[in-house]
Write a structure and sequence with these properties.
heterodimer; A: 495 residues; alpha+beta; 7-stranded antiparallel sheet; 5-stranded antiparallel sheet; 19% strand; B: alpha+beta; 4-stranded antiparallel sheet; 14 helices
Chain lengths: 495, 408
């Protein structure tokens, strides 16, 4: 994957840039030591590394605005960063760009239980929000697997999901308000504590904008009461098809489980070897169905799920009888990624979403590709919402294997698009899937997206090299060539 | 004379918008026209009537997804979904009667374009939260798509969010994909009689802080409760504070009992059964109690829910209004006096200042709607940003010119 060619001008003026940044962010907030900068050289997509020109860690919205204004004035690129857990390279630095770290924005500003919301700074971690409100029985619903480390600002940038998002939504469905700074230093507030901000939904489009539109400096999130009960069922199936049938039947029966996760045989074995969760090893697919809500509801629905699972051909079935047992059932799934990391020097995690009905076809296709590329693969699947995470096993020390794994991953994602799905369900496009965008979108589609970018950042200084395969100049995109005159369809009904 | 163009497919929509752009001829986008009176009067002599693009093109209940053309009426959609025991969880209201139009005409395109949401907004979100994918023709006369047909998707910017609530100022939609959800098996409503606005919002707040998954939280003051078509509410002889619980039978029963205990301090909690519940929440969604007296301006306010009663209290200091609360106090529907200066905009918008929020004038004469900001004015930097976003899609301001703001 190529990043934009570094611009020699800001590199030549590095010391001047450092001085001007130090005038904005005093103390140790400007990092320019080569060794210290290595801490920022990559994010969760660790195959790619690039130390930034300089890193700056502002503390206030005014400092962020001044940094962006400076960057805009002298034409230097800016890469925003939360905790750096992006799996798609969203926070990959640029050799000629400023790395804008938001880690110092780490305060919970207000908890408003009456309005069921919390106002937090973007560097607060996802889990810290839940911890701040847990005492009153509340929580913040989206729970990406990196929730211990990832920040809410990063969650907004990536529109993060998690295992519970079929029922509780993604980040965008749980954010009420934002304060953000544009590249020209303008501070804009979107939404607030009310549900319906009105006007164009810029709040909606900021979620998942991958740091290309603005830098978020404050987030108002919805908090809600934690369901009083949660129980999980672990169900083993003789084939991926029967497991898929069971998922469809659960949905058809009118249930929206809090979580519905599927693992294939290689994933089951890797997880069981690692955490000894007691998973059956003689099945082809495992399904975890979690039901949450009032005890009366959960008990009622567990019975329905059992009936459906048996009818679909389940060969093993275990219902959690206690909270400890529920957590044990989840332990293997939650450890699936590190478990795969144990059996392979490196793995590459993909993130396509497909219409659930296409699962057997896609898994068959992945199996064939695995043979073609001579790389093993383990699949975990957010079965409820069709979000597939194939983990491609490779060894970066073997020349050519990373490239082979990337080509394999690209083929998987193209297959996802072919069956009516999308390139990324929750990890974002970033650097990783940038060049695949043309398989999902036409040039006209992408131009309409890029004009949104132009409205926010006409100079293309915020996080360039991410999301779009090629950035057109905004002046070129803005031009409109009108064909004047008569309606080309004489038959068009007119009244 | 107004010219109306009625395309039958995407290619004809492209042709129509190209023609409009080529002639610098702004067009008003219309579906069934049920919400045509909401917003500033559009500055256009020509109408682009999208009602010819109708019909469900894909419905896969097991995938929780439905695709339809924008002119499909909500009634047709609801019938199709009922076959799969599913529904549009955002509960789109029918604002036709409030705006002086017949009931039952609203379309999917209109519901999305206005980002509508009914009482279930507090639990399941608004139209924008269920809007998965779109095909549309921008003001450039170019057909494009965004989003997809799967519920979990972060590929590229979420342009669907921009189209939802844009009131047709960015693009003419030609195909819409939405998430659909299982319809609840059972519905119950708990009614508390006799609370004033402040106490009612406190009761709603307490209920919404519970884990009981409330899917409707409204308060009708006595004068408006009396207008209900549900006999048990019309005859209550006082205000009615309402909490809806939906879901599987055993779950609803357990939650009703818990809530009756937890809110006992506010008074008796009588329960309405399925039929009465459904009729009542339909009325609340559709603002039925303010349909009569069409000469009175009607406002829709979205505010921090716990402050809803205080907002109305401040408005009442200077204006005699009828108001009721939905979304736990966070949505206020308010009828101002017919002769209020500027439809009461001064008092309504001043009341928002302490806590934030926004107010939109939903019903008023065209002359009134042309004379004041119908939608909440935005801060200058935000307004400028929104205008740039709009210009990206529709640089010549061909689509619904002037509907959102005088210079949009």
């Amino acid at each position: 994957m190529k990043m934009p060619r570094p611009d020699p001008a800001p590199i030549a003026r590095r010391s001047e840039l450092i001085e001007r940044l130090q005038a904005i962010v005093p103390g140790e907030g400007v990092i320019f030591d080569k060794d210290a900068l290595r801490a920022y050289e990559s994010d969760g997509l660790s195959a790619y590394r690039q130390p930034p020109l300089v890193a700056v860690l502002p503390r206030t919205t005014a400092e962020v605005a001044a940094v962006l204004r400076l960057a805009n004035e002298i034409g230097v690129k800016v890469v925003p960063r939360g905790a750096g857990t992006s799996l798609s390279g969203g926070a990959l630095p640029l050799a000629d760009g400023i790395l804008l770290g938001m880690a110092r924005f780490n305060r919970v500003l207000e908890i408003d239980y009456d309005n069921r919301c919390a106002v937090v700074q973007p560097g607060v971690t996802n889990l810290a929000i839940t911890q701040a409100v847990a005492g009153r029985g509340f929580y913040y619903a989206p729970d990406p697997s990196s929730q211990i480390a990832c920040t809410i600002g990063g969650n907004v940038a990536e529109n993060s999901g998690g295992v519970h998002c079929l029922k509780y939504g993604m980040t965008v469905n749980n954010v009420l308000g934002l304060e953000m700074v544009l590249i020209n230093g303008d501070v804009v507030r979107l939404g607030g504590k009310h549900l319906d901000p009105g006007g164009l939904d810029l709040l909606g489009v900021m979620n998942g904008s991958e740091g290309l539109l603005g830098v978020v400096t404050e987030v108002t999130v919805r908090i809600q009461r934690r369901p009083s009960t949660a129980r999980a069922v672990l169900i083993g199936f003789p084939s991926n098809e029967t497991a898929g049938d069971c998922v469809a039947a659960v949905i058809a029966a009118g249930m929206v489980p809090g979580g519905m996760e599927m693992m294939d045989r290689p994933a089951i074995h890797a997880a069981e070897d690692y955490v000894h969760a007691g998973y059956p090893l003689d099945v082809e697919a495992l399904l975890i169905v979690e039901l949450d809500g009032p005890a009366a509801e959960v008990d009622h629905l567990i019975g329905r799920v059992e009936t459906i699972a048996r009818a679909a051909g389940a060969v093993s079935l275990r219902v959690s009888a206690s909270e400890d047992e529920r957590l044990a059932l989840w332990a293997g799934r939650k450890a699936a990624f590190p478990a795969v990391g144990r059996i392979s020097p490196d793995y590459y995690c993909m993130d396509g979403t497909i219409p659930r009905g296409a699962l057997p076809r896609v898994l068959r296709g992945i199996g064939e590709m695995s043979e073609k590329y001579a790389l093993k693969v383990a699949n975990v699947f957010h079965a409820g919402d069709g979000n597939l995470h194939p983990l491609i096993l490779y060894d970066a020390n073997h020349p050519g294997e990373l490239e082979r794994a990337e080509a394999f991953g690209g083929d998987i994602l193209k297959l996802c698009v072919e069956v009516g799905g999308v390139l990324t369900g929750e990890h974002g496009v970033g650097v990783e899937k940038r060049d695949l965008m043309v398989h999902q979108f036409t040039e006209t589609d992408l131009n309409h997206q890029q004009r949104v970018k132009c409205a926010f950042d006409p100079g293309g200084l915020l996080n360039p090299g991410k999301m779009f395969p090629q950035l057109h100049r905004c002046a070129e995109l803005g031009a409109m060539h009108v064909r004047g005159g008569k309606l080309p369809f004489p038959n068009l009904p007119r009244y | 004379m107004t010219e109306t163009v009625r395309p039958r497919d995407e290619a004809e929509v492209v042709a129509a918008v190209e023609w409009a752009a080529g002639n610098q001829q702004p067009v008003e986008l219309v579906g069934a026209g049920s919400k045509r009176g909401w917003g500033r009067p559009v500055e256009a002599q020509a109408v682009l009537d999208l009602s010819g693009l109708s019909g469900v093109t894909l419905y896969e209940p097991n995938e929780l997804v439905l695709t339809a053309r924008p002119g499909t009426t909500l009634g047709v959609l609801e019938d199709a979904l009922a076959g799969g025991r599913q529904h549009l969880a955002f509960e789109p209201p029918d604002l036709g009667p409030l705006l002086g139009r017949p009931a039952g005409q609203g379309t999917l395109g209109g519901a999305i374009a206005c980002n509508l949401a009914g009482p279930r907004r507090i639990k399941d979100g608004a139209a924008r939260d269920h809007f998965l994918g779109v095909k549309a023709v921008s003001g450039r006369g170019e057909a494009f798509k965004a989003g997809g047909r799967v519920v979990k998707n972060v590929t590229g910017y979420d342009v669907c969010k921009l189209l939802a609530g844009s009131f047709g100022t960015l693009a003419a939609m030609t195909e819409i994909t939405v998430k659909v959800l299982p319809a609840p098996e059972q519905t119950r409503t708990l009614v508390i009689a006799g609370l004033d606005d402040l106490a009612a919002v406190r009761a709603l707040t307490q209920a919404l802080q519970s884990p009981h998954e409330i899917s409707g939280a409204a308060h009708l003051p006595a004068a408006l409760a009396a207008r209900s078509g549900v006999a048990k509410i019309a005859g209550i002889g006082s205000s009615a504070t309402l909490l809806r619980l939906e879901g599987f039978g055993p779950s609803v029963k357990a939650r009703v009992e818990s809530l009756q205990g937890e809110l006992a301090g506010f008074g008796d909690l009588a329960a309405l059964t399925d039929l009465d519940s459904k009729a009542l929440w339909r009325e609340i969604a559709d603002v039925s109690c303010l349909v009569d007296e069409p000469e009175r301006p009607v406002w829709r306010l979205s505010v921090p829910p716990a402050q809803g009663a205080q907002v109305v209290g401040r408005i009442r200091e200077t204006l005699a209004v009828d108001a009721f609360f939905d979304w736990g106090g966070g949505l206020i529907w308010l009828a101002a006096p017919a002769d209020a200066e500027a439809a009461g905009a001064g008092a309504v918008r001043a009341a928002l200042t302490p806590w934030g929020g926004q107010a939109s004038l939903v019903r008023a004469s065209a002359a009134t709607r042309a004379s004041l900001p119908v939608f909440q004015p935005e801060a200058p930097t935000l307004a400028a940003l929104s205008a740039r976003v709009r210009a990206g899609f529709d640089p010549l301001r061909i689509l619904n010119r002037g509907r959102l703001t005088a210079d949009s």
